Amino acid sequence: MWISQALVLVLLLAFGLNPSVLVSGSIHCRLRGISRPPALFREGDFVIGGSLQRTMSHICEYLELQNVKLWSFYRMFSRELRFARAMEFAIGQINNRSDLLPNITLGYRIYDSCSAVPMAVDVAFQFANGQETDIVIDASCPQVASVSHSATCACLSEKQQYPAFFRTIPSDHYQAAALAQLVKHFGWTWIGAVRSDSDYGNKGMASFLKAAQMEGICIEYSVAFYRTNPRSKVKRVADVIRSSTSRVIVAFMASGDLRILLEEFALQPPPRLQWIGSESWVTDPEMQKFQVFSGAVGFSIERSVIPGFRDFLLNIPAAQLSQSTLLKEFWQDTFSCYMPGTKSSVDADQGVKICTGTEDLNTVQIPYTDTSQLRITNLVYKATYAIAHAIHGAVCENSPHSVKATQKGRPVCCYDCVPCGEGEINSLDCVSCANEYWPNSKRDECLPKPVEFLAWDEVLGIILAVCSIAGACMVVAVAVIFYRHRSSPIVRANNSELSFLLLFSLTLCFLCSLTFIGRPSEWSCMLRHTAFGITFVLCISCVLGKTLVVLMAFRATIPGSNVMKWFGPLQQRLTVVCFTSVQALICTLWLVLSPPFPLKNMMYYKERIILECNLGSAGAFWAVLGYIGLLAVLCFVLAFLARKLPDNFNEAKFITFSMLIFCAVWITFIPAYVSSPGKFTVAVEIFAILASSFGLIVCIYFPKCYVIVFRPEQNTKKHLMGKVPSKAL
């Protein structure tokens, strides 16, 4: 509505201290005026201020003598007292809660604005600075936040002009449009309009007239006045209404202004009118008593129920009644008596009734006790809770991601801002995010943790995949060369059957590295380690078989030796099958007893999830690697022993080099695998597979391919037997 009638709730800027102590280095002046105590008050760590309409008649009468222009009704408005007590009731509830502002007590100071703008401004200054304290005139002055339950002017939505203003009631922008549609609905196209001469009335009516014009509604007149205007102006407004031809009138007015108009209508009633009222007065129980408003229509705030509020209103403690001037005056006005100790109580011998304090509010029907239409009252209740939640969340607002922690042995007002821990957000308190969530950069929201694994579309995954496919293609190319020259001496001399089996196993070694790339699944986890273990054992078994063939062939050249009959083609095949079967058995037991499975690892990094394959059984994994290592060492030793055999093309020499590279790669793999984090663990394993596979293909097959393709003259039996000197190798 407007500032003089709004019960504006404000947060005083200190823990119950004078807010002016928070500002220094500003231009100062002295706030002058009469010293007025609050109508209702309670001390607390945080103090919330409230501004009422006219409630205390003796204060307002005194101000009228001081040339402060007031309007003429002097009796108390108990409806406004109900608003104030709703704020008191809400603060009492909040102070008894352990989840909202624990260990902090809210207080309140509620003043009477006497329904006058000058007094409302005076109250606002007292909220911001305190009575007889320095006023801060400085652009850096902290603004006092205010929350209104009834200030509906659309102008207050301008956040650049009113950045610290909030409300729990809708803007008049919506009410004006609804009133225009209501008028159109009933087919009223010729109407009059009267408004309060204030921001509430002027801006609200302007919005209505604009909406009415769009609906095709004609306005006969639009008049305005304010309660402090001269009586002559009020009379002119009343005359316009009486003499008009329209019988529908839209009144965008405050209850106080409308009462002034009623005084004038009481002298000379207008013709029968259909009143359409704004929310400010159409739901006011006082207005419903006047016959002139019979049949008035308008929009109202939704009715609500506040549990326990009626009992709170009816049961005023005797101690509070005796201490509060406001409650004393209310009691006297309600029961037509005088409290002991008041000025009028001395007239008891003249027949004046003395209040006992035991009078029963259940026996009277006044707006104060009427809780059947809690509309605006509920908005006061909500506004109080809104401020409480704001205080709760702003205790450590200058220390982001922190919460208040009281200092041991010091008052509640003394506190430290303690940072929230890792994985916690600061909403009202430090709240831990769920297991798979992590705070955002502002630490005000929990977001799902990013999931990390070696993906196909990232650079590292693409490089490793290309290397794997390139290695497989290289093996295929070597196999094609060997197949085309399968009858040549160099291919036949190197056991072509084992050579092709070795090439096949090397192809599988290159391709098995692809199973390590991509999002781990149950099947991929089981496949990647077992495929790797079996294919590498097959590969090393073939190399071991070729090494044994070389050794046996040399021993066969000794007169009387028949060793080759014990290591012919059948025995070579059985050797490969036996060695590979052992690894296949280990892998089978691994898959049956404790297979690998996908796991979300949140232990290594707190802020992200590592999606990896858990080994299931670490012993089985190291058994697979150990068996491969055992065969590799055996192969290396045998190849090393055969490296100086007399053939011109000694294959054992190249096998020695390949096994040396193989063993070096896997020896360095172990510490790198253990220490690599996240997806780099998988990358290290792929690198070891590719490096050892490239070592085998390059050392064993490239020299032979070089001779086949570029030195065909050396691809003869005489040269291989060492009867022709060689400069190529």
Strand percentage lies at 5-15%
In total, the number of domains comes to 4
- The rough form would be described as elongated
Write the CATH architecture name of the largest domain: Up-down Bundle
Distance between the termini: 103 Å
Q: Write down the Rg.
A: 47 Å
Averaging pLDDT over every residue, what do you get? 78
What is the CATH topology assignment of the largest domain? Rhopdopsin 7-helix transmembrane proteins
Number of strands: 22
Q: Tally the helices.
A: 21
CATH class of the largest domain: Mainly Alpha
Unreliable spans are: 1-8, 11-31, 62-74, 131-142, 723-729
Helix content: 40-55%
Please list the strands of the largest sheet in the order they lie side by side: 3-5-4-1-7-8
Largest sheet: 6 strands, mixed
Provide the structure class.
alpha/beta
- Give the full name of the CATH homologous superfamily of the largest domain: Rhodopsin 7-helix transmembrane proteins
Entry summary:
By secondary structure, the chain is an alpha/beta fold.
